[in-house]
Amino acid sequence: MAIEKTGEGLKRVVGVSGLALSIVNGVIGSGIFVLPATVGIAMGAFGVFGYIVCSIMLAAIMLCYAEIGSKVTSSGGSYAYVEAAFGDFAGFVINWLFVFGWGILGSAAVMNILADSLAVVFPVFADALARGFLFFILIGFMVLINVRGAKQGIGFVKGITIIKLLPLLGIIIFGFSQVKGTNLHWEHVPSLTTFGNTALILFFAFAGFETCLGVSGEFKDPKRTVPLGILLGGVTVLIVYILLQTVTQGVLGASMTQFKDAPLAAVAEKIVGPAGATILLFTAAISCFGSTSADVMATPRSLFAAANDGIFPGFLGKVHPRFATPHLAIITYGSLIFIFAVSGGFKQLAVLASAAILLIYLAVILATIKLRKQKQAASEKTFRAPGGLLFPVIGIATIVWLLTCLSKWEILSTLIFIVVVMLIYFVMKGFKNKNQTT
Q: How far is residue 188's CA from residue 249's CA, in Å, rounded to a whole number?
């Protein structure tokens, strides 16, 4: 049966289009502006097949999210899914990995990329004070929009997604006239090592869809919205990625190495002249802003859900009496992004991100398998991934492989982080039990 925690006080206002566009916005971030060169230099025209292979690996994970997301309909996304299957302890660890190891550090890094993009045209943003003021204004705006309501938050994400996609679609549409067929021919298949290293980069280029599921307690008809939203969002991302790679490779060809830092800007310049590079620069900044906006909309719901479960501070579970949003969780999360973005603390801790998201994916897949054993009424039939255990097994195998590709420092730092989180959990549990007995 579907698992829903009543009494959250939130409104179900997010539909299929909202989730799909949020996924597109969350996945197609700052990395897309250098990704075609990274793939093209390593694999040449064969790089398109790298996208297809990685999309298959991600599809296996997405199908698990689609299945469990149609069953667990309370707020929190990955946290809610793992907590429903394995309880508070597992949920607590996953929530810390997701909120801190992936969300806050990732958004702080993206905000600095945004400032770096603007600094090319407006050198003032190279100054630390100006950057801090920029972060305060932008993050404050994101917080304000999302405090006012999930409907407003998702509406803003829809708008920013369309705005940032237009220049990319322009490159695809008008760039095809500049494509040279000889640049798309490949004479040999890349080595397995080269393909594996590139696939690792591509895999993380597809990550980010799970963040948008944080508003799972505000989906209209989750049994329909989650599977369809993930499907439409994932397919759109794949199509955009493949077309951009094809056009970039077809236009630049062997000269890709000369434009490794800004391949899309180079293509845009060939299409419309010097103004094209400037347009892409602003598009990169808008893309960063959109990705962080989606994060500020979704991830605070994980804090909110954990507070309602009694494993995070209670004030994070408060709902705004007028706007029906977890306003204190949103304000707290936005404040933490601002602090790390200004301080640069994310640089030392960003090593956690890769392992953190892989462990989150693994936990959600295992939760999906466990919750399959629960019986459900015919009237509550939810989405189930086809093929039995085929896709969960593909997902697990993918994650295990990618974990072996990480550096020892990435793995060690993540293990240390998990141990610290576990100690925090048991200390909190001890205090809670002590208070209950006195």
A: 16
For tokens 């630049």, name the residue. Answer: 252
Rounded Cα gap, residues 325 and 322, in angstroms? 8
Report the candidate in 141, 131, 140, 96 with the shortest Cα–Cα distance to residue 111. Answer: 131
Residue-level pLDDT, tens digit, the chain, 438 residues = 455 555 567 778 888 898 898 899 888 877 788 888 888 888 888 888 888 888 888 899 999 999 999 999 888 889 999 999 999 999 999 999 999 988 998 899 889 888 988 888 889 999 999 999 999 999 999 999 999 988 888 888 889 889 889 999 999 999 888 888 888 888 778 887 787 778 778 888 888 888 888 888 888 888 889 999 999 999 999 999 999 999 999 998 888 888 887 888 889 888 888 888 888 888 888 888 988 998 999 999 999 999 998 888 889 999 999 888 999 999 999 999 999 999 987 777 777 888 899 999 999 999 999 998 876 655 467 889 888 899 999 999 999 988 888 888 889 999 999 999 999 999 888 877 766 666
Distance CA 151, CA 157 (A): 10
Separation between Cα atoms, residue 130 and residue 123, nearest integer Å: 10
Calculated CA dihedral for residues 194, 196, 197, 198, nearest 10 degrees: 80
Q: How many domains does the chain have?
A: 1
- Residue in the structure block whose two tokens are 């993206």: 110
In angstroms, the CA 174 to CA 272 distance is 9
User: Residues 77, 298: contact at Cβ < 8 Å?
Assistant: yes
What's 240's domain CATH number? 1.20.1740.10
Has residue 5 been placed in a domain?
A: no
Is residue 9 domain-resident? no
The residues with which 219 forms a beta bridge, in sequence order, are 14
As a dihedral over the C-alpha atoms of residue 282, residue 283, residue 285, residue 286, rounded to 10 degrees, the angle is 120
The string of DSSP letters for 390-429 reads HHHHHHHHHHHHHHHHS-HHHHHHHHHHHHHHHHHHHHHH
Domain of 30 in residue numbering reads as 16-437
* 71 within a domain of the structure (yes/no): yes
The amino acid that residue 190 corresponds to is: P
* CA–CA distance, 46 with 190 (Å, rounded to integer): 8
What is the C-alpha to C-alpha distance for residues 207 and 27, in angstroms, rounded to an integer? 6
82, 367 contact by CB (below 8 A): yes
Q: What is the DSSP letter of 3?
A: B
Extract the tokens encoding 247: 């056009």
